Fold this protein.
Amino acid sequence: MANGDENTTKKLHIVMFPWLAFGHIIPFLELSKFLALKGHKISFISTPRNIDRLPKIPSEFSNSITFVKIPLPKIDGLPKDAEATMDITSEEMTYLKKAMDGMENEVTNFLENNCPDWIIQDFAQYWLAPISTRLVGGFFGSTKMDPFETKATYRLHEARWMVESSQKNVSGVSDMYRNGVTIEGADAIIIRHCHEFEGQWLKLLEDLHHMPVLPTGLMPPIVESSSHEKNESWISIKEWLDEKPKGSVVYVALGSEVTVGQNEINELARGLELSGSPFFWVLRKSSGLGSIDPIVLPDGFEERTKDRGIVWKSWAPQLKILSHESVGGFLTHCGWSSIIEGLMFGHSLIMLPFLVDQGLNARIIEDKGVGIEVPRNEEDGSYTSNSVANSVKLVMVKNDGKLIREKAKELSSIFSNKELHDKYIENLINFLEDYKKSQ
């Protein structure tokens, strides 16, 4: 520490470098804001197009958060202008990782020229470990083994997908290796969780890696009332929701980064129709800049369900919809941010995961008793309209689902508790400041 009052906290220069997925980029940006409010300087690294797509940050951060645009190298197999997972299909994911690996030289030059106090990075950038003395990674897997009883296991079709994906991995580096090397070079692990919900998992993580595990809390987002009130889309959506009974509507959204096949869309549509529940389905074009296939719904579906359902084919204000009193359940792909947003408002979850980490999320949530996973064929991962309909009916209206609905409402007191989660951020900031003082 520099000469002067020993109690004076040195303001830190912290580099943030998330994986190229907005489900990672946005939480990294939110954490950046918390750190910047404490007077620390943030350098936020991503690609030009990703940075340009970020929500505008308030002017109060103009001197404390600097966006560092580092181009993504062009490689064969990656669509033109694709810079995030929302721009590609799941089959193209490995090309995005290979392209990100090509950012190494420019990222290294930036770090060497700026000498940050901390680098908070994601799982994928394994090549940072040898050139960084301060790396903090996100949990993807474990480099060690420890006995631990859990129902959070991969299904057969998920395990098969992982094996097949590794065989087609053009980047030449597996996700487990990326994560393992990153953690081995880290001083601590930062993770978007809290002890009140998953305390046993956080302890396990600390025991496995023998280093501090620092929860950020859940960082529940704030519903902005002013930004959408005059938005024409929200006005139209709100008018539709206002007409529905309290707690009756299933909100359906599978995220912007999941590629859903035509047969899967058909079965989901028929399942919603069979369920009899009112629904608001956000159904946007499949991810992937190279994707030209239109969204096709079963013949007559929209006409048959027009009195109780709506299919919304453009951007929708998810938080505003979830906060509306007519919404009672959330059919989700189980991205962690979506889970947090659903449980913030006490909505029980109908879970339809597509990517393997989402499957683990679904199993943990089901074990907590606040949602159910739509049954799938263990061999190929397919699901039927009946399995969708039965899951929706159980969660939304059946007596058998009453306990699920009650537990979800109870859990909202944890997931929506901003004061609780702000304390986690304070503890994280204290760690970052105190650790540097001790060096």
Remarks:
- The chain has two domains: 13-220+418-438, 226-415.
